[in-house]
Fold this sequence. Notes:
By secondary structure, the chain is mainly beta.
Amino acid sequence: MKRINLLLVGLACLFMVTSCNNEPELPFDTFEDLTYGAYARLLSSDGNFFLTDIDGSSYTFEVEFYDENQGQEVDSYSWVVEHQGELGNHGPVDIMTVPSSSFQTNSNGLPGTTITFTFPQVLDALGITAADVSGGDSFVFNATVRKKDGREFTAANTGTNIIGSAAYRGWFSFPLQVLCTSSLDGTYDAVTTVTNQSAGIFWDGCEGSTWEGQVRLEQVGDGVYDVYSISADGTEFLDASMGAFIACYGSDDQGGFPNTGEAGDVQLTDACERMGFRGSSQWGEIYSASKATVDGANFTFGWINDYGEGGETILTRTDGTDWPPLKL
């Protein structure tokens, strides 16, 4: 038995030597032969565009750059903008290019930059005026990261995991809605029904479930609201699903809500009475409004996310007043 073991060890050693000497062709690229992309990671952002204060409106964000050489292979970071409006569309046009010579090294030891777009600057770049813009219009910004070898990376050729994941937060594209003053703050009676937008997702079988409680809207910026679901026992959850997650998982935030954890920042937006969402869940899912209708004191609001989950809520005012004419 001992001699057989020695023979097996010898054959294994011979195989390893032979393999190294012949260097057989592998059916995949080795690490050294891979090609590498680059992307900008969002660190922070702040600001809005207000139709009621064009001169004072701006949006600022900070990014840092990643590639196979700690961001040193990035040559430039360029942006274009287009206007999608009720009165017509304009663009896209170039609005800014930041060369690598203008990057700063941040506290993470990576090159980065801070960019500010002002509302007047965007209008000038597009060649339009305030008369061409209505409340609820969108300005859509798209970026290109160019490497020193000439290759370019955009939202179109970058993986969704890099763009959508809370860990990577790749910053290649974002919309800015034109906002107006808003006054939806308050606590409202709520009935929420779970809707399933896609077969096979993890809450399959939960569709049709309902939750009754209250929803509180707290304005944290002009036209931007944190959404809280309040259960019958008074427990309050930061929950942009308006009770849909409670209907599926019960009143235990360990079940997971869109805003649970520091990476979740889903917020409701009122853009001149056009309803929508901003931000993403802790899992990187994007939420959007799917329904918004008003019938006196009742406001029916529906939402979906890009994972296929959805919900529909009837919010009822109890102060004797009606909702404004909210819409999608």
